[in-house]
Amino acid sequence: MHTPSGRPVRQQTHSNEDSHDESADDTQKEPAKRGYTKMRKIAKMADGKQLDVNVNSYNQFNCQDATTFANYLGTLVRNSAEVPLNYMNWKDVPKDKKNRLWDLVKIKWNVQEQQKDQVMKSFGKKLREFRYSLKKKHYDIHDSYDARIADRDERVLPDHWKFLIDMWDSEDWQNKSKIGKASRAKQTTTHCAGSKSFARIAQEERVRLKRSPTRAEIYITTHCDKSNRPMNGNAASLMRKMTDVCEDQPELELRNIKDGDLYSEIFGKEKNGRVRGLGLGPAPTDVWGDRANTHKLVKEAREAQQKAEEDKRKMEEEREEEREEIRAMRAQMADMKAQIEKLANEKHGHPHVPVTDKGEDNYNQNNIGVDDDASSAASHHTYNMVVCYYNLTD
Predict the structure, then answer these.
(1) Residues 79-134: tens digit of each pLDDT
(2) CB-count exposure of residue 245 (10 Å: 0-12, 13-18, 19+)
(3) Which residue ranges make up each domain of the chain?
(4) What are the Cα distances from residue 349, in Å, to 41, 342, 344, 346?
(5) Which residues touch 361 (CB under 8 Å, ≥6 apart)?
(6) Residue 235 in contact with residue 185, Cβ under 8 Å?
(7) Using CA atoms in the order 329, 332, 334, 336, what is the torsion angle rounded to 10 degrees?
(8) Of 8, 130, 178, 348, which one's alpha carbon is 20 to 30 angstroms from that of 329?
């Protein structure tokens, strides 16, 4: 079993400059607090200049600039002019707002269309983190509604802040919060990777190992401190279990995720809709190709059936419109023939051979088998006009 022991241990160094002079306590000023992340350098970049960001096979951003890229996404989603906070969650944000954010990203970053889904997931995560921060700093510390309303973050519009306060006060939200806290309490270990994404860590391990790391190796890397020690007893127990399983089943050590890896042997089957140990982004359909193809084929078949039914409905509507036009045209021709016949009788002062007599009968007999559609109706109309002309000039 590959353990993180092969990685260089990162030592914390201390110098004399770190020592604190107690005599200077009275004269030192309190250091200025770090403000909100605004990414001004990127915002001020010249028009047409773009930054590159690399991705892996799952379209996760895994380069050194991935953290900068994620921070930039955070500045966009925290802008209330771009993403109003009066929505329950990211899924409720209108599509035009999301497309606007995507357009802003493409101005500064060289991203491709196939990476849009990953960017949208990052936006959703950043929005959740922002709202969590607002709740912790401006809601949880107060006991009254008025105090919470008054303690509004300057980045949030007043009506949006009221929406959030009312939402957090609601019984439905309180129940969801209790369920979430209970689920969180069951989690015995959390990673200590900091702001570095799992995708970036996996890329660093890929360079170090000269092969793609397994999920078990990523777990060990992200659950050990800087001295390569497990973060707590539970993490240490799971790592020992990995070693024991590999001794009994050595073929599991480097088996990939598609074939049933060591990680799934230790942690069990995946839950619906997500894949553990890979970080934000990959879904089961992205990892297991067969499942992805099956899902894709079923989806395409369903969409094709819906399109066929829609086309059939439109065709029936068009045919009904054509039939209505034909009926209207026939009624109009009948009225014209009646009027022309009446005019002809009045002109000659005696009964006149009706237009629909022998001439039209011969015409109909010579045209048996012609489709009774709008084209034949138009030809019929032209013939009647010719017969009417000769009757009137007789």
Answers:
(1) 988 999 999 889 999 999 999 999 999 999 999 999 999 999 999 999 999 999 99
(2) middle
(3) 37-185, 198-285, 314-392
(4) 97, 10, 8, 5
(5) none
(6) no
(7) -130
(8) 348
Residues 6+ away with beta carbon under 8 Å from 101: 76, 77, 82, 83, 123
Residue linked to tokens 């973060």 = 231
Q: Tokens 């200049």 sit at which residue? A: 49
Residues 286, 215: Cα–Cα separation, whole Å:
16
The whole-model pTM stands at: 0.63
- Tokens representing 345 are 């009788």
Q: How many angstroms separate the CA atoms of 369 and 330, rounded?
A: 18
Instruction: Copy the structure tokens of residue 178.
Output: 């209790």
Half-sphere exposure (Cβ direction) of 326: Cα atoms closer than 13 Å? 15
In the block, residue with structure tokens 């088996």: 255
Phi, psi of 137 (to 5 degrees): -90, -25
